[in-house]
Design a protein that fits this description.
3 helices, mainly alpha, 0% strand
Length: 82
């Protein structure tokens, strides 16, 4: 059996528990809900305050919204492939 002298057993047990915690359905759902609420808040802020006629500069909220939409699209594609 492979044993690592680098990591102690309690540390590996802690990491295993941490992994199981973050992979549980309720925690995944909570993370998804919170991230979607943050997306909606940033998107609504962008539409209400930062949206202007397109020019040479791009606002930081627009970049953040583009990143959110891109990651949501990639996640949907990943779920369809599985």
């Amino acid at each position: 059996m492979w044993k690592s002298s680098k990591w102690s057993k309690p540390y590996l047990t802690y990491l295993r528990h941490l992994k199981h915690f973050h992979e549980s359905p309720i925690v995944k759902y909570s993370y998804n809900s919170v991230s979607y609420i943050i997306f909606l808040l940033i998107f609504s802020y962008y539409l209400l305050f930062a949206y202007q006629i397109p020019n040479a500069s791009i606002h930081w909220t627009e970049i953040l919204v583009i990143m959110f939409v891109t990651t949501m699209l990639i996640e949907e594609i990943r779920q369809v492939k599985i």
